[in-house]
Each structure stands twice: as C-alpha cells, then as structure tokens.
Design goal:
The structure is a single chain. The chain is of the alpha+beta class. Strand 1 and strand 2 form a beta hairpin. Helix 9 crosses helix 11 and helix 11 packs antiparallel against helix 12.
Length: 452
Amino acid sequence: MAKKFKLKKVHINIFLFLLLIFFLFKIDNVEGFTQTKKKELFDRFLSEDYKNIFPNGGRNSGGPMFYEYIVNSMDLDKEHFKLYNQFYCGVSGSIVSPNRKGKISNRVVLEDLSGGKWFGKYYRCCVPCNCDIMRYTKVERHTVQLSDGDYPHFVITIKDPCLYKDKIPSEVTAFKCQNGLTNNGIRTNSGRLIIGVLYGINEMEEQPVKYDPSIHNVDADNFCKERICQNPDELKGGMGDIFVLLSLVGENDNSIPPVPDRFNCPLIERMENSEGTHNSILNIYGEPLKKCRADNEDLNGSWDSNGFCSELDGGVHQICFDVNNNTKEFSIHTGQSDWSLERNGKNHCMCLGAWSLYKAKQKKGLIQKTFNELKCESIPQNSLTNQYVNKWNTWNGNELPNQIVHGVNELVKYCYNKGNYSQKRYLKNKYLSLVNDKIDFHSTETYNSINR
C-alpha cells in the first residue's frame, strides 16, 4: 500500500513538473511565437525585406506595399503570415516592433461595405491611426493562397487612390500607379485596396467578430472621439493626416465618410443671425438650418415658434415646401382637405409621408409632375435619419408601395443637384448612411448615380 502511495506521489510530482514547464513556456510563447523568435523574425524582416518594399525609402501610408510584399514575395504559412502583418502600421507605413515598450495594438470597430460593424484588434504605430481607420476605411473578407493552403481573413481597405493619381498627396511616394490601379498593392473583389489586416482579439487563433456594444470594450474609443469628430482639414497629427487625405482621393468628389454614430459628435453651435439660421440644428447640407417661414407674420406653416421645420416647440414636419400655383393642390393630392389652396404663395413644413405620396403619384402619372418646390437649406439633417424616415414610412392610409423610397430619393436628387461642392459631399454621406442597409434603394437610379 505504501509502495502504491509513493508511486502515485511520483506521478503527481511529474505531472506538476510538466505543468510548470508548460506555463513557463507559455509566458515566453506569445500567441504562437516566443518573444525571442518574434524579435528574430522582425529584425530579419527589417534588414532584408524593408529595402525591397520601399527601394526609394518613401514609406508614408505604405500599408498596401507591406501587405502586397508579404503575400507575393515571402511564401509564408498561415501562422507566419499573421505575424508578419503585425510588423507594420497600415495607416502610416511605420514599422511596429514586437518588443516596443507600451501598447502596440488596440481594440477597434470597423464597418464593412454593407454597414455591418466588426470588433477586432489593430496593430498601429501611434494612437491617431486607430481613430482614422474607424472612420476612413472599411473591413472586408479576403482570401489569400499561402504555403499551407487558402487563408480567409479580414482586411482593411480604401478606394484605390491611383484612380486619381494626380491627387495623391506629395508626401506619399510609394504608390506605383498604372491604368488607374496600384501595381504594388492588392485589391479585394470589390476593387478596394488593402492597407492591412484586422485581427481577432487573440489574433493567432481568432477572427474579428460582429460588434456587440453590450459585451465588447473598444478601448480605442477612449481617446478617439475628438479626432473622429473633426473634419479632415482640422486634423493635426502627422502621418495619420496624410493617410486621411490619401483615403479620400479614390472618391471622385472627395466624399468624407460620416462619423460612426456611437461617438455622438456635438452639433456645431451657431448663434442665430440676421439671415435666420438656427443656433444648433444643421440642415441636410451640414450648415446651420435656415428658416422655412418667409413672413414673420405667417403663423400657419407647421413650423416651430421661430419658423424652423424642426419638429420642436410645436412644429410637426420637416420638409420645407414652396406652395405655389403649380403645387397648391398638394393637400388634395395627398388625401387631405384643400387647406394648401390657402397657402399659395407661402412656404410650409410638410411631413415626409405626404411628400413621398405626392411624388409617388407623380411617378405613376396619377397627378401632374411638379418641380423645384423644396427649400433645401431649410430642411434639417434629421429628416435623413432612420428615426424620422421610419416615423413617416406610411401616410394616412393612402400610401403607395415603396413610396418612401421614391420620396427620399426625390428629395436627395433635387437638393444634391442644387447644392455646391461641399453641400453635395455632405448630403451624399447623409443619404448613403441612411440607405446603406436598405436594399430597396440600391437598385434605384438615384442611389447608383450618387454612389459612384
């Protein structure tokens, strides 16, 4: 009995010894590679490969060049592929040493091309790069062929700046453009250019996951709000600023991506002036909202007490509409009484439901077409939000199928064509943000025209 006990004790000691060896190994073995091995591979990459990636030394915004070289020139297996793509920042083009003191990665949320949000880890040289990818890039699934087989993963993309190579910032010299494409880069099936990789939280074992704000802590958000809420021309942060300008080159009108909604950027505060603009509400052009009321004595336009289509302080509707000889039967044509006859020669705040029915009937030839009846600078940007559109998706039981699609499109098309360059850019972003996940819009002429 004592012999069996001693034998059992020996087995336990052996097990504990092996367990100790395992944990000691795990301490130095960081996500598949020891720190020593990581440093060895990084030093070799820097000394032997870097000069081949950037033969002229210009690495600014060089993420696409790093990724293309790793895929096409290194013949790696999956584990080494994942490791090597941690050695650079896709935004700045800077190297990211695995032995650098402090954090070299952060948890971020990126949108895909359909508006879905993905939670993962990004390797960066400095803090602003996290912020810039969360606003100015998209994430896509992409598959590469490696030495041990196909590897599907998540990549970070921008529109290819070589589409308009003359607009590429002068600080960016690594791009080799030919026929509107980056030769030393790789594109996804969508045609967008890959700048780097989005990892899962345990990057050697996982992929990014759908973002759930109730369980996922996006540590990058803690320091990104101020930067993300700024316009590109307000940014001050070195290499990230250059990348932001580069990411906008591929847009034929330099469209600025909207701010992710979780940041709740404050509205621009303006004092009301003699032109009748609101002190806090912006219009669909991103400018201070103008009054819809033309005559201060006119109290019957369904606006608020100050004459804005704000749905505040007694106002009930948001579409500023010119009632004239051509449009005076608006209320009759939308199943109401003849009240609009008395509004002839005046503006009026209409609701989106009635406006949509009015335009849908015109499209079907049920009533005569009218034009130029909107006061775009007096329509608040809130009219192009899910909350408002869903509220007026139907109208008093007289609605036609899909009328809201035609109503929104007619509003956007008219005001887009009427706007100047910056107004068009802002309105385009508002519209695409609204309809991104609404497939009924995606086959329409307006959507395809604006989303070019």
